[in-house]
Amino acid sequence: MGVLRPLKVIISNYPEGKVEEIVVRNHPRDKKMGTRKVKFTKTLYIEQEDFMEDPPSDYKRLAPDKEVRLRYASVIKCEKVIKDKKTGQVKEIHCSIQPESEGKKSIGTIHWLSADHVVPAKIRLYDRLCIKENPMDVEEGKDFTDYINPNSLEVVTGFVEPFIQKAEIGSRFQFERLGYFNIDPIDSKKDSLVLNRIITLRDSWSKK
């Protein structure tokens, strides 16, 4: 798993210093690919986009006084939101682990990483070079350069599981809910990871 834009989550009713090992699948849908263990601790990282202060009614991720399931782990409830005093941006969330019940099957599920067991990585998020499916199908008075996507590359600093730091240069991974990535064969070093997104999990062109 990986977290591209980290938001800190503190589990208020989880013991300080406790570390659990949770068994997760190497592939979310293919059991034949086996399992591995990830650490679970009091402080976690989730994606910034998996939290919203004032969500719509059908929002199934984390929000104040709402519950969400951590992938392979517990159900948590948001109890407190801490903001930066200068910017007003949310900088951390305090949550509590909730008891399991049958009625919680319909809540959303998000991925996470232990803040104490991650390595940082520069992550390049490549998108389509052009904003038009066929950039050569140009309107009168324009050429293909008018359809260049100004957001075809975004670079973020995120976190990934520690084992990726030991993987061979060029290795490929699927980060759950995020897409497929590889270790950059030129710029990545053992102590300075650089990952490239190869493809997202959904193709927006197919919806058109």
From TrEMBL:
<keyword id="KW-0436">Ligase</keyword>
<dbReference type="InterPro" id="IPR049437">
    <property type="entry name" value="tRNA-synt_1c_C2"/>
</dbReference>
<feature type="domain" description="tRNA synthetases class I (E and Q) anti-codon binding">
    <location>
        <begin position="109"/>
        <end position="184"/>
    </location>
</feature>
<dbReference type="InterPro" id="IPR011035">
    <property type="entry name" value="Ribosomal_bL25/Gln-tRNA_synth"/>
</dbReference>
<keyword id="KW-0547">Nucleotide-binding</keyword>
<dbReference type="InterPro" id="IPR020056">
    <property type="entry name" value="Rbsml_bL25/Gln-tRNA_synth_N"/>
</dbReference>
<feature type="domain" description="Glutamyl/glutaminyl-tRNA synthetase class Ib anti-codon binding">
    <location>
        <begin position="1"/>
        <end position="97"/>
    </location>
</feature>
<dbReference type="GO" id="GO:0005524">
    <property type="term" value="F:ATP binding"/>
</dbReference>
<protein>
    <submittedName>
        <fullName>Uncharacterized protein</fullName>
    </submittedName>
</protein>
<keyword id="KW-0648">Protein biosynthesis</keyword>
<keyword id="KW-0067">ATP-binding</keyword>
<dbReference type="InterPro" id="IPR050132">
    <property type="entry name" value="Gln/Glu-tRNA_Ligase"/>
</dbReference>
<dbReference type="GO" id="GO:0004819">
    <property type="term" value="F:glutamine-tRNA ligase activity"/>
</dbReference>
<dbReference type="Pfam" id="PF20974">
    <property type="entry name" value="tRNA-synt_1c_C2"/>
</dbReference>
<dbReference type="Pfam" id="PF03950">
    <property type="entry name" value="tRNA-synt_1c_C"/>
</dbReference>
<comment type="similarity">
    <text>Belongs to the class-I aminoacyl-tRNA synthetase family.</text>
</comment>
<dbReference type="GO" id="GO:0006425">
    <property type="term" value="P:glutaminyl-tRNA aminoacylation"/>
</dbReference>
<keyword id="KW-0030">Aminoacyl-tRNA synthetase</keyword>
<dbReference type="GO" id="GO:0005829">
    <property type="term" value="C:cytosol"/>
</dbReference>
<dbReference type="InterPro" id="IPR020059">
    <property type="entry name" value="Glu/Gln-tRNA-synth_Ib_codon-bd"/>
</dbReference>
